[in-house]
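Subject: Sanity check before I submit

Could someone independently write out the C-alpha cells for this chain? I want to compare against mine line by line before I put it in a report. The sequence has 335 residues.
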Amino acid sequence: MVDKAWRHQTHKRASLVFQQYNKLLECAPSKEAILEFENSSGNRFFELLDKLYGEEYQLARLMDSSDLVFHAEGPAAKDSAPQLKALNWLTKSAEKSLRYIGESIFDSVGASDGRKLSQKLDLRLTGMAPGSMYMGFSLADGGHDDFDSLFDESHQQVIDLLVEAFSKLALVPNYITDDDVDRGIGEIFLDPAVRDATLLSVYNLCPTGRLGLHTLDITGKSGSPGQLSQRERVVLRESIFNPVMSERIPGEFLGTVRQIDLDTKRFQLRGVKELGSIRCVTHMPDKMLKTLLGKTVVLKGLYERDKNGKPKLFEVREIKSFEESPQEDLYFFDQ
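---
Independent answer below. Compare away.
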C-alpha cells in the first residue's frame, strides 16, 4: 500500500489557503471587487495554490510512492528541464547502486548467484518532480518468485530486506567525516559484507562535478535526507582500497573464487566449510585476479564477523592454489 502522508500534508496546507481566501471574500465590499481580485495577475492565493499543486504536490506524491528519492542540485539541474546527460547519469548510477546492494544481500543469505538474482530485481522509476532534479525509485512487490527458495516463507521477506537496505543509503552520509568513515556505521549495518557494498554504492553516487551536479540528497523511508558531494567521494575512495572494518581477526579459508569485480577488487569465496560464502577484498593486480575465477584457493588474511559471529568480510593478504599445486603461492601482500 502506498503511503499518503506527504500528500496529506499538502492537502492540509491547501485547505488553510482556501479558508483564508474565503474569509477574504466575505470581507469584500462588492461582487465587482471579488471579480477584480480573482482576475488580478498578482493574486497571491492563486499563486500559492499553483505552487502547492504544481510543484509541492508532485514532490509529495514522489515521496509517498518511493523507497528512495534522489535530489540533485547544480547547474545541470537548475530548472524544470534538466540536462539529459545529468539525468542519464543519475538513473544509471541509482540502478547500478541498488542492484549492487541487492547482490550483496543475496550473497549474504546464501544465494548461489547473487549477481544473477540482482539483475532480476524489478526496480521502478516512480517519477520526477520540479525543483532542481528530484527522482524517485522503488522496488516492485511482485515478479520475484525466484527468491522463494532462499527463505522458508515467501519472497516478501527478501523484498522487505532489500527495501530496508535501500533506505539506509540515506544514513551513510551522516557517518562520513572529513577524514574517514565513522566506525559507528557498523551499528546500522550489522552485516559487514552489506555495509562494504553499501559504502561502495554510495561512492558511485557521489557527484564528481563534471556533469554539472554538485550535490545529491538521498531520502529514504525515514524521511531524513543525507547529502553527498565531492568531499564524501574523496573520503569514500579510501574505503575501496582499505575496507572499513570494526575488527580484524586473522583467519584462513578454503573455497572457490566467484563473482570477481575488478573495479572494486572484490570477489566471493564460495563453498567455504560452515560458512557457505564470504565477501573478499584484495589488492591483487587485475591480470592476476582474473586468473582466479573458478579456482579453488586457500586465503589467508583478516576477517570481520556479523552479529552472530559469522565471518562475512575478508581482507585477503595471501592466496594459495589448492588445485594443481597446494603449495603454490599465487599472491602475497605485505602492508
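---
OP: Matches mine. For the report I'm noting this point. The CA atoms of residues 74 and 213 lie 4 Å apart.
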